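Figure 6 in text form: structure in, sequence out.
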């Protein structure tokens, strides 16, 4: 081996050793400048309660049937299972934490003992929360009754369970927020700035509406271009594309109605978004709903879906899909997909026409249920057909719906259904 080759090999070895040492080097808690937050009075605690609703914190930190915010909810990821932590002021929760520790977790994605947090906790979004809101949220959590309910340790495959892997993920995808800008946006009178704060920070919309790669990351973790939600196999549609979930052409009032009531003149929510409305946005104050609507409405129409030349469905699929539609669907959705009474039209329905058939498929499989809200307390639902229709039946009926009455989306195959069913 030549001297030059040996020199290159030596440099590579040194670089590798440095990378390994960097990954293995234990982290220490990042120094936090304390704030004079004062006592947690009733007004601060109430503000924190409202912030917890806006962030839908209970959704990940409460197991079904368990104590609120006591943790334990299993959250599946492509790398294993993460369990929501206990946020009550108990020995197994936030009992030993200070407001500074809590801010470190939200702003830096780091626990009080220096461990890096798993990005299932959306610290790319919470890093944009203002310190004053962090302190109010912490005051509310400290006011909760303590619960010592045990929370299982995360069950992640190696090396994703290591601090070194989390350090690499952070280096690739974490962008720390500007605390000064967040403090200004949190109290902004301008609706676009306030809306940006809610969408990108507290509301953490990109946690679902971001396109993720094999490491569940994106160089722009605030991207709202849409993506398949890992393991759930629901598609969070693009908020930039009017053909998917973009609202650039809607009125402010119509956008507000969708987030407040779960339905508007031209759309309804279902699946994971129904849970967001159920547990969070229906409780937002009118001015915050308007701010969010104003921000979403002014988003650029980037990545707008182009009408693609869809492959033609075969005659068998059209015939069988038509029969299944007549048998199971026409009574509510109309013989021509025009909708009947409160049941939505399927002709021209953008949830049906998206390139990904995931949401239509999940609705056929598991039913479609809207949230119960003050403006729509008894929503009509769609029954599940998972036990009635085979994968081929579902593919045929979806093909029928996506290609009739002027709809021009691609047909669906039984293989598509099998791949998108996912693990439930």
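Output sequence:
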């Amino acid at each position: 081996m030549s001297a030059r080759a040996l020199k290159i090999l030596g440099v590579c070895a040194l670089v590798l050793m440095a990378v390994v040492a960097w990954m293995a080097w234990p982290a220490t808690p990042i120094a936090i400048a304390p704030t004079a937050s004062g006592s947690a009075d009733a007004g601060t605690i109430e503000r924190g309660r409202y912030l917890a609703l806006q962030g839908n914190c209970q959704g990940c930190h409460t197991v079904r049937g368990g104590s609120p915010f006591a943790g334990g909810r299993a959250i599946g990821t492509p790398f294993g299972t993460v369990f929501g932590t206990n946020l009550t002021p108990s020995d197994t929760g936030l009992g030993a934490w200070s407001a500074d520790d809590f801010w470190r977790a939200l702003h830096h994605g780091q626990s009080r003992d220096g461990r890096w947090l798993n990005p299932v906790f959306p610290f790319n979004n919470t890093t944009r929360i203002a310190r004053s809101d962090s302190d109010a949220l912490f005051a509310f959590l400290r006011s909760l009754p303590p619960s010592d309910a045990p929370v299982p340790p995360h069950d992640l495959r190696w090396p994703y369970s290591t601090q070194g892997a989390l350090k690499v993920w952070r280096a690739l995808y974490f962008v720390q927020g500007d605390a000064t800008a967040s403090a200004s946006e949190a109290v902004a009178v301008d609706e676009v700035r306030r809306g940006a704060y809610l969408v990108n920070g507290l509301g953490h919309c990109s946690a679902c509406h971001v396109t993720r790669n094999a490491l569940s990351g994106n160089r722009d973790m605030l991207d709202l271009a849409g993506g398949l939600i890992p393991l759930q196999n629901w598609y969070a549609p693009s908020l930039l594309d009017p053909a998917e979930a973009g609202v650039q052409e809607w009125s402010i009032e119509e956008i507000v109605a969708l987030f407040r009531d779960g339905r508007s003149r031209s759309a309804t929510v279902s699946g994971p978004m129904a849970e967001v409305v159920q547990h969070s946005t229906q409780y937002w104050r009118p001015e915050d709903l308007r701010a969010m609507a104003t921000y979403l409405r002014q988003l650029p129409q980037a990545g707008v879906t182009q009408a693609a030349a869809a492959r033609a469905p075969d005659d068998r699929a059209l015939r069988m899909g038509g029969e299944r539609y007549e048998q199971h669907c026409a009574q509510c959705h109309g013989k021509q997909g025009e909708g009947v009474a409160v049941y939505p039209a399927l002709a021209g329905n953008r949830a049906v026409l998206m390139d990904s058939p995931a949401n239509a498929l999940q609705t056929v499989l598991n039913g479609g249920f809207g949230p119960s809200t003050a403006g729509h307390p008894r929503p009509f639902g769609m029954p599940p057909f998972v036990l009635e229709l085979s994968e081929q039946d579902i593919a045929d009926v979806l093909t029928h719906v996506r290609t009739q009455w002027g709809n021009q989306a691609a047909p669906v195959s039984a293989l598509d259904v099998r791949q998108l069913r996912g693990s439930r």
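Caption detail: Confidence is low (pLDDT under 50) at residues 10-25.
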